[in-house]
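Now for one specimen:
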Amino acid sequence: MKKIRVHLKENSYELLVGRGLLKNCGPFIKSLNLGRDSVVITNRRIVNLYGNDLKQALKESGFSIHFELVPDSEKAKSSEVLIDILNRISLYDRRKALFIAAFGGGVVGDVAGFSACVYKRGVPYIQIPTTLLAQVDSSIGGKVAIDLAAAKNMVGTFYQPKLVLSDISLLNSLPKRQIRSGLAEVVKYGVIKDIRLFEYLESNFDSLLELEEDALQHVVARSGEIKAHFVEKDPFDKTGIRTVLNYGHTMGHAIETASGYSDKYSHGEAIAIGMVIASEISVRLKLLDDRDAERLENLIKDIGLPTDIKDLDFGKIYESHLRDKKFIHGRNRFILPVKIGSMPKVFEDVPEKIVRDVLRQRIRYG
């Protein structure tokens, strides 16, 4: 097992990465003194696969357990679902000392974390991520949010978990599409921080797609270390240091919004395209060598992720990107790589013509 400490003063916590952690999670959670009653926010699929394992592990350590189910899609991140969860928790909460556990992927982590933040002005919560994308990225750092019709994550805040427990054994149940989606975020870390991680992906993407445990543990732990580094330096995303974690997300979120948060594009697929678009913009601005841009695109293709947008309207994507929360004073803001493995540039007010041209070149119809 690998332990990674996220140093945030009184909000510090540990990220645990290893095999078989779910069945042995009780003592880790008990040591935190969060309360005796767990409210586990999850979805039907995860309950059917792993609910009994979690229930047994918690009961053995003296916890009660209550499951609250949300839809298994981005639709769970709505105001209606949030209020419904809070009402159900309040009905359950009679003489309880409760904490919340997010047991699922990034969507579950967002809605569970947001629920924990606002219920009674804050109750403790932990993350037990069950997807690769959540284990390497969304479960770490305390960003919690729900969506509005206009754009993703428009209503949110920062609320740190008390523990992140990443059991790589849980990834065995995932379809290949979700593994590829998670690897998109690992590619991001390689581009913005660690050339050795990028090279590891180039050499080992086949092993990762085949769920080889040593390879998975390596990329989950290394990604956690990188995410923790940025979160520690910029916990509230105010200085621009943590902002670089949004590489690929400006246009990636716009693609998700334009597709109506459907399964046409997973988060990782949209971010993969967003990274390619951002790298091409960077080449146009003479910040990035076109050989690095080609190398990035080749790795994304090798993993099996898309690099082009199929059958989405240009106007909808462009309009969605204009509503992105990363806009500052009406000016766009892109995270642009300058060299693989090096700190990217936070670039404001990219010329509209370049953005439009690059986006159009990535759209395919028919």
